Every structure is written in structure tokens, then in C-alpha cells.
Amino acid sequence: MAPVDAAWYHIDGPANTAMITSIALTGKPLDFARVKTVYTQRLAQFERFRCRVVENPLPLATPHWEEVPGFEIGQQMHHVALPAPGGRAALAALLNDLASTPLDRARPLWDVHVVDGVDGGSALITRMHHCIGDGTASLLVARALFDASPRGWRTPPPAAPRRTTKPGLVGRLFAPAIDAAEWSVEQLRSIVGGAIDAAAHPQQLAGKAALVLAGAGTLAAELLKAPDPRSPLKGEFGPGKRVAWSEPVAIDEVKAIGAPLGAKVNDVLVAAMTGALRHYLHRRGVDVDRVSLRAMVPVDLRPPGRASELGNEFGLVILELALGCRDPLARLRRTKAHMDELKRSPEAVAILALFNLFGRVPKAVEDLAVQLFGSKASLVMTNVAGPKEPLYLAGVPIERVMFWVPHPGKELGMGVSILSYKGYATLSVVADAHLVPDPEWFTERFSREFASLQKAVQRHVHKQAAAKAAPGRRRPKARARPNSAVESPPR
Fold it and tell me: Per-residue pLDDT for 96 more than 60?
């Protein structure tokens, strides 16, 4: 197991697991036998879905993947039904139970529930441990399982290419940090290249190592900051989780909001989320005008050459939330400024290298490091761009897709995720049930904040248009008054 994946395997706590939960909703019922056939045919290309994790007794050695003897896909798949009438509340209750139940470590660390009776259709709920892969890896698996046409499920897709070469000593020790630095260099400086050989290209290695060190300096400055203050998002965790999700918002409307201010889709959605968080915390008694909170934000660092592999290839950055801004436009402007600053930061590269180190140390040491790191923020927030075209599972169209990002550790009480699909984005929240017992209030407020931001931008655009259309009044030129000390007025 790669050290970064081992770090995510060990980050589990008794009340807070590193598990990604996702759901695909269909308007028509799914045929469980067909779904099982699709999984049997298509998950075979991903070895990790047949394997369990086995700890290595040697010190500073990472765990390894071990294929389960006599493994069958059906052992990981469950067929259930919601109690009538099968509405949103019943689905949320099932998701709460699944999000609160750890995966069986004696088995492969994933499972699937096909749920009947969901508003006349079905739901496909997938749970996957973070050590198997990150958000980008989850999309890779989804591309293998889902089709672009109703009849595509009858023809299994070709197997993904497998790596045939093993990395050398330098690659095994430093691959995550070097790959991350390489990908960041490509993004920041438009340099294109594959994996490097340290012996043949020492100057390239030095350049990439310099980027890692630059990120380490940025990260050190972040870790020297004071921890996030106490809030309803921080406290003693319990075993229960609560999930919620918003109504979808159109991506075209998101773009229309951001265009007049030069803001990206992510800026607008984060600003609306921050507005919802401001109102939620105010409702819980927090002085939101005086408090400052941060979010951990994943940044994809997967090199192009490893786009078809599972695993974790992302770093994290610490985002200062514009919580103190009352005005929606001011909140959007400040959010954009903070996001732009993070895009230029090498911090994510250093954090990926840090997790590479976490995976090699004893769990007790990792827990202390994660606790220190996690204390600097109050929540995890991620945004994933999903497919724009409709997808199908076993011949049935998928109407909506959502996921819940884990918030591991002892300090991050809530995970917020935004996923776009078919031109719409949905905000989903998972939180500790003791700290945040009502996440549905937060997701409902997100929809209201989005509408408020939309109206605020429309007023801003109208004011600008009115100012341009109004005839300008020219001020009369003032007559120059003579300087009495230099010249006398004419007589």
C-alpha cells in the first residue's frame, strides 16, 4: 500500500471514519440482478475492490493489499427497500445509519446498497474507504460502472491499462511528493513531463524538491497560526452521523452570478455555502461578526500519467472563510480573493508529502500530527465536477448524484461536498450528530443564500447599467484664481 493511502487507512477513529458515501438516484426502479451483473463484470479491473487490508508487523512498514479467498461481488452488495411512503426523510434515516456504521475491516473496504421504493425509483448507495481512492478515483470507478446510453450495460467496457513497470528506489520513497511537485509545476509554469529519474535528471529533481520545500514553508506558516476557535462544529464526537443535501442549483445560473465579478463557479458556491454557515452559527449563538473559521479544501494533484489509477493523489489547503461579511457581494469578492491566493500557493504539494510521511510512522504519532493539523480548521469542504451528460446504470437513467466527504480526526466536525451532474450542483453535508444535529437547516439555508446572492448580483448589474446609461453631467471648468503672491488681478 502506498504511504499516502496507508495514512488514510490509519486516520480512522472510533467515532469518525475516513469513509466516502455516495448516492445515485434513479426515477425508475433498478433491477438488482442487472446491477450485480454490471459490478461483477466491471469491478474486476480494480484489484483493490477484491482485497482487504493487512497490517505489516515490521516497524515503519505500510500495510498491504491481500485478495480475499473465494471473493464474490455479491458479498459486498445488499438489496433493501425503504418503508412506505419512501420519501426524503426515510432515505435520510437510512443514510444516517450507513454513514454511522464503520466498514468491516476483515472484508474489502466498500459495499453497495440498492434501495427500492425511493419516490418511485431507486437509490444506489456506495460506501468506500478513503484508502481505496480519493474523489478523482471515485469518478474513475463511476466511469467504469455507468454508461452513456441505456443499452451500454450489455457490453462491458475494455479493462483499464495496468502498470507494467515498477518504480525504482527513489520512486518508491518519494513518488507522492515528486509527482505532486511535478503536477504543480505543470499547472504553475506550463511544464509538461512524465515521471523523473533522479540519477538521470538531478536538476529536475532539485527544481521539484524546491517546490516541495516552498510548500513546506507555506504550510509551516499555516500551522503556526492559532487554532480555529471553539464553535458548534468542534467538540467531543459521538458515533452517530447526520447527513443532508440541498436542492440542486443550475450551473448556468452559478456562472451568471460570477461573471460580473470575474468569479468562478467554485467561488460562487463557496460564498453561498459560507453565507449558510454564517446564519447557522449565528442561530447557534456564535458572534459571526467577530469569529474567523477555516476550511480544509482538497486540491487534486494527480499527474496525467496516473489519471487511470486508484489511490490518493491530492493535497489540502487551508481556506479562510469570509464568515464576517454580511453583504453577499462582499462575501463573494472576499471568497474569490482567498481562493485566488490559494491557487498560487504550493501548500497542497507539501501536505501531500506530509501525508506520505504520516503513512510511514506509527498510528499514535500520526494521530498527534493529524490532531495538530486538523485544529487549524473547523470543517472539510470539497467541490467535484461530475459528468455533464446523463449516465445510466444497468439501463436505467441516473437523475441525480451526490456524495458525502469524510471529516476525519478530532477537530473537524463537518464535511461539506458539492458535486455537479447534468448541469446542476448539489451541496451535501455530513456531520457529527452530537455537534450538528440539524444539518438539513444548513442545506436549506444554502438554497436561500444562493437566491440572495443571485438577487444581489442582479441589482449590482442593474446599477452599473443605469450608471452607464445616465447622461453625464459635466462640471463647469473653474476659473483659475490668481496667486496674489505672484501676480495681481487684472484691472
Answer: yes
Mean pLDDT across 279-297: 91
Instruction: Say how far apart CA 105 and CA 22 lie, in whole Å.
Output: 19
Domains of the chain (ranges; CATH) run 3-158+168-466 (3.30.559.30)
The pLDDT tens digits for 376-396 are 788 989 988 888 999 999 999
User: Distance between CA 412 and CA 390 in Å, rounded?
Assistant: 34
Q: How far is CA 322 from CA 265, 289, 332, 342, 483, in A?
A: 16, 10, 8, 14, 52
How far is residue 324's CA from residue 305's CA, in Å, rounded to a whole number? 42
| Residue indicated by cell numbers 459528468 | 387
Nearest 5°: the CA angle 64, 70, 75 is 90
Q: What angle do CA 110, 111, 115 make, to 5 degrees?
A: 150
Nearest alpha-carbon partner for 39 in 116, 135, 129, 108: 108
pLDDT tens digits for range 151-187? 877 766 555 544 444 444 333 434 444 444 443 444 3
Sequence-ordered strand ranges (E) for 321-449: 379-385, 392-393, 396-404, 414-421, 424-432
Grid cell in block for residue 255: 456562472
